[in-house]
Design goal:
- By secondary structure, the chain is mainly alpha-helical.
- It folds into two domains: about 5-205; about 220-510.
- Helices cover about 70% and strands about 0% of the residues.
- It is built from 21 helices and no strands.
- It has helices spanning about 5-25, 30-55, 65-90, 100-120, 130-135, 140-170, 175-190, 200-205, 220-240, 250-280, 285-315, 325-340, 360, 370-395, 400-410, 410-415, 420-450, 455-470, 470-475, 485-495, 500-510.
- The chain starts with a helix and ends in a 14-residue tail after the last helix.
């Protein structure tokens, strides 16, 4: 199981609570002296967290924010506590100390856990990780501040319990009192109840490594398939491409082909859930059924756009190279097929779409629908992230000219080259992103509506985490930022592309132009 930030957070809390318990029961002089050094390490780590939230050298115009005010006052107090602890540590150099006592041991363990967790979070401030979006969310940043507050309060209680013994060592009692006050006041000022889901989002941040895909079992239950789809979707999102990597049209075409098959299976799954809901509740819960129907229609729109991406690559370039391995993508596509197929051993290599099982086999009850919808939600967004990366490669400096030049060699075969082909390709990718963002809201609502009362809180947290990881720029601008694309070359070929704004996508969702459309079988 992957290690997440929550593991370090829980470890630090357990260590500090144990330290408080032991210190308030009994602590000797040599143990109290030994606690000073790990306490100093703890304040140093807490200050590193605060500096990430609101750097001390923040420009003046950014200091008007409420978060900066909430961070700066406790930072001053923690800096004072840190200075006092450093001075005390120097004054106590050479004194006998019991480093094996539970209090210094547990304070040191808490400082180590928080420091390791901080290093983990720092790896996710890289903008190439979509977890950076979650960490930059204001609710999550307040959750980090709450973590600092709780640890400062607990450390203040430890030092208050150790104060009398440290004073007997001949140290300044006024400075010791000021140390305790600074720690406790810093915790009181910083503490705030965060928005629902923010703490869970923070705790869910994983180690930034790509987990190898687990072996596909010969047969699997619906629950196992859904869990596997979510794991594969996370693997796709974690597999960050190398910066400045060479564009591979074979990889892009393979990605689009897999996305077409996966989206077809997702559409069929939600359509089957809609039919099953009608069978179970023919005369009630009409709003739930409407949400399911809207989700299916939205998925079909996304499927159409992925079809367009695939066709653009086929017309634009003829690349005889084999695509690089994409185990998570292949496994996710296979699991999506097996989810709806009567053949438990269906694979991508069979070159035919799965034969559908009955709706009752897919979801015997309404309670079985939420996990399926949640796995579809993960898969659809992971494919959009994949499309985002492919689009970023296409619009990277020099790539558009390279595609234009390469496409001339296949003009006679494919019939579409140059600016028109590149415009169609970039436009298709943008449509994928726009229509995916539009359907996610319906999938969220459907997953919540079909969850049982007991499951609903966990589903809500899972969806909240996913939403916080989304890049806000993708929703509002759809890659129009000149910092993300080579504006001089991209504008030459994409100036006539109609960008699907959020408003246009929402309007398209309300239209009836696609109502009643049946799933088209994607050409392989």
């Amino acid at each position: 199981m992957a290690t997440v930030f929550g593991d370090f957070l829980r470890e630090a809390s357990e260590q500090m609570n144990t330290a408080v318990y032991c210190a308030e029961r009994s602590i000797s002089g040599v143990a109290a002296i030994a606690t000073i050094e790990p306490a100093r390490r703890m304040t140093t780590v807490l200050l590193r967290y605060l500096d990430d939230l609101a750097p001390e050298r923040t420009p003046a115009h950014e200091r008007l924010s409420h978060l900066w005010d909430r961070v700066n006052h406790p930072r001053v107090l923690l800096q004072e506590a840190d200075v006092i602890l450093r001075d005390l540590d120097r004054q106590l150099a050479g004194r006998n100390r019991n480093t094996a006592h539970p209090v210094p041991v547990h304070v040191a363990g808490a400082a180590l856990a928080l420091g390791t967790g901080h290093d983990l979070l720092k790896t996710h401030y890289n903008p190439r990780s979509d977890w950076a979006n979650a960490i930059e969310d204001m609710g999550v940043r307040h959750a980090v501040l709450d973590t600092v507050a709780r640890q400062a309060q607990l450390l203040g209680r430890v030092m208050k319990a150790a104060r009398a013994e440290v004073r007997r060592a001949g140290l300044d009692s006024i400075r010791l009192d000021r140390l305790v006050t600074a720690l406790q006041t810093a915790g009181d000022i910083a503490f705030r109840v965060t928005a629902p889901g923010a703490t869970e989002t923070l705790a869910a941040v994983p180690l930034r490594v790509t987990q190898p895909p687990s072996k596909l079992p010969a047969t699997a239950s619906v629950e196992q398939l859904c869990a596997g789809i979510i794991a594969n979707a996370e693997g796709i999102r974690a597999a960050q491409p190398e910066a400045g990597g060479q564009l591979s049209s074979a990889d892009c075409r393979r990605n689009a082909t897999a996305a077409v098959v996966a989206l077809h299976c997702a559409y069929q799954a939600v359509t089957m859930l809609t039919r099953r809901h009608t069978e179970l509740h023919p005369a009630r819960e009409l709003l739930v059924r409407r949400t399911l129907r809207l989700s299916a229609e939205g998925l079909h729109r996304v499927l159409d756009r992925w079809q367009a991406v695939r066709h653009c690559w086929q017309r634009l370039l003829f690349d005889q190279r084999r695509p690089s391995p994409a185990d998570h993508l292949d496994q996710m596509t296979i699991r999506m097929g097996r989810l709806i197929s009567t053949n438990p051993e269906w694979t991508f290599e069979l070159r035919n779409l799965p034969t559908l099982k009955s709706p009752a086999e897919l979801a015997p009850t309404t309670a079985d629908m939420s996990q399926i919808l949640l796995s579809v939600r993960h898969a659809v967004e992971a494919l959009a992230v994949l499309g985002h990366r492919d689009l970023a490669q296409v619009t990277a400096p020099g790539q558009i000219e390279a595609i234009h030049a390469m496409s001339r060699t296949t003009a006679a075969v494919n019939g579409q080259v140059g600016a028109s082909g590149v415009r169609a390709l970039v436009g298709a990718y943008r449509d994928v992103v726009g229509y995916t963002n539009a359907v996610l809201a319906d999938l969220n609502r459907a997953a919540l509506d079909t969850a049982t009362p007991g499951e609903r809180p966990s589903v809500m947290v899972a969806l909240s985490i996913l939403d916080r990881r989304r890049d806000p720029a993708l929703v509002s601008a759809l890659f129009d930022h000149t910092t993300e694309v080579n504006s001089t070359t991209a504008s030459q070929y994409t100036s006539n592309i109609r960008v699907a704004t959020v408003g246009a996508v929402t309007a398209a969702l309300r239209s009836n132009s696609d109502s009643g459309r049946q799933a088209s079988k994607p050409a392989r």
